[in-house]
Amino acid sequence: MRTGALVSAAAVGLALLAGCGSTPEPAAGHPTGAGDPQAVPAAAVPGGRLSSGPFTLLPTAPQGYEGVAGTAEMARHDGGTTVTVTFTGLRPDTDYVSHVHSGQCAEGGGPHFRIDPAGSEMPPNEIHLKFRSDASGAATATAENPTVVGADARAVVVHPADLMDNRVACAPLS
Asked: Number of folded domains in the chain?
């Protein structure tokens, strides 16, 4: 009977460890926190001060993105900042990265917004959203950051993950 209890305890421990390892590894260069499928969308964050805008195509967009549409939403709240992007018209089954930028969309979004301008180009000093479009070219992603960002977070830009120099679309956060 004691052996059965030990085996049961070991099985429970292994099950817990297996559960801990089931989180997928982030893509190279994009740590966990660059997008969370379980996160509450920005528009639904309790007490959030919402900024949002529609995505418009940028002149740097590669061919084949003429039908891209969507919105970016940013909620500033007591727990930090939450950003949600929603798209249609992307290339199907393709990996993308969106970043919060500090410029205006008329300027292609300008540089990446950094919480500490002298700090890292990676989260948590920047807000990144990595995601994959579905078979119809639609996608939604949400990322959270523990810092309440200021007014210098002006836009969200989307890039294909494999063509980071090709900015596809920009949404102003007004």
From this structure: 1
